[in-house]
Amino acid sequence: MKPKASENLSPRRGSRYGLVLLACVIGLGFSLALFASMVGWEERYIEQEFAERVEERVGAIRNKMGDNLEILESIRDFYTAGHHIELEEFQLFCRGILKRRPYILALQWVPRVPRPLKEQFETYVRAQGYVDFAIAGSGHGSEG
Prior knowledge:
By secondary structure, the protein is mainly alpha-helical.
């Protein structure tokens, strides 16, 4: 007598499929856990790399700002040295600063001129070759 097809399935064959399925589930679970941990690691790495680059750039900006502040302080000290600064002296003083620091586009000589001396000063500057020179108001009611 021949065994029926349904009788050919032994309990061992079913347990083999169960073990294969269990191995697949465990492998898939391990893969997902590894993937999740790698994503977390990569995000932390990117954040750390970003923070380091930001700190580097902030440091560079601070250095430039400090350098620029030092330049302004040296100009202030030049003016407080005790004598009246003429345009030529100012240009001579600033020439080296501008040459060594190409990121500074200009330093301006802007002397304070009392209102009673305005016309006299404008005439003096025009005589120096700045034919269209005129003092504009400061915006504080000093138009005149």
